[in-house]
Write a structure and sequence with these properties.
The chain is α/β, with parallel strands linked by helices. Helix content is 31%, strand content 25%. The radius of gyration is 17 Å and the shape is globular. The structure holds glycinamide ribonucleotide. The site of glycinamide ribonucleotide has 14 residues, from helix 1, strand 5 and helix 6.
């Protein structure tokens, strides 16, 4: 089976993009990152794409109706098999999602369905949660409501700030996303209603326990 062709949509620093690029650098990885699209000019994710030799394009959402923005996005993506949202801070409409049914993935910095939307780490601290984490999921028309592929948890430690907790959560994001992209690229994910079923291989699990130590 040829590797799946993957586009990554970004809006910021792109550490999750980097995790996907690093995984895809392995010739045995079942997916190739063929395009990076940012809706914000000048973000470091674009530099990461350039360093990896992956073509990138900026499509700004600012000052455009949502439909026009999405039509430009669709035209830029062309024929890709999977779209990965990696810190992409725009909600996509059913028109866009319909072009890639059950093939748009997202990484979110919270243990969904808790704390959807923005600032997952901040919300976990505000609620006094003792566990935080990340969720890799398929995207549906809601905000962070699509079928869950895998989750990773980390403890909330005394003295955590939003920054220290977000950094700890990122370490599990970087492990989850390539793992889930592999499952998708290998055609091992099936959606049943609001749940995703994954055909797991020996030794695989749909959860990760992160460490409480400082992120590397
Ligand atoms: C990540 O923590 C990602 O989970 C989050 O933005 C950050 C992007 O970091 N995404 C969301 O909050 C989406 N709702 P990165 O640019 O370094 O990958």
């Amino acid at each position: 089976m040829p590797p799946a062709r993957v586009a990554v949509l970004v809006s910021g620093g792109g550490t999750n993009l980097q995790a996907l690029l690093d995984a895809a650098a392995d010739p045995w990885f079942p997916a190739d990152i063929v395009k990076v699209v940012s809706n914000i000019p000048g973000v470091f994710a674009l530099e990461r794409a350039a360093r990896a030799g992956v073509p990138s394009v900026v499509i700004e959402h600012k000052g455009k109706p949502r439909e026009a923005f999405e039509q430009e996005l669709l035209a830029a993506l062309g024929e890709v098999d999977i779209v990965c949202l990696a810190g992409f801070m725009r909600v996509l409409t059913p028109t866009f999602l319909g072009a890639f049914p059950h093939r748009v993935m997202n990484i979110h910095p919270a243990l969904l369905p808790a704390f959807p939307g923005t600032h997952g780490a901040r919300q976990a601290l505000e609620y006094g949660a003792t566990q935080a984490g990340a969720t890799c999921h398929l995207v549906d028309a809601g905000v962070d409501t699509g079928p869950i592929l895998a989750q990773g948890s980390v403890p909330v430690l005394a003295g955590d700030t939003e920054a220290t907790l977000a950094a700890r959560i990122l370490t599990v994001e970087h492990r989850l996303y390539p793992m889930c992209l592999r499952w998708m690229a290998e055609g091992r994910v099936r959606v049943e209603g609001r749940r995703a079923q994954v055909e797991l291989h020996q030794g695989e699990a749909r959860w990760i326990l992160g460490t409480g130590g400082s992120p590397p």
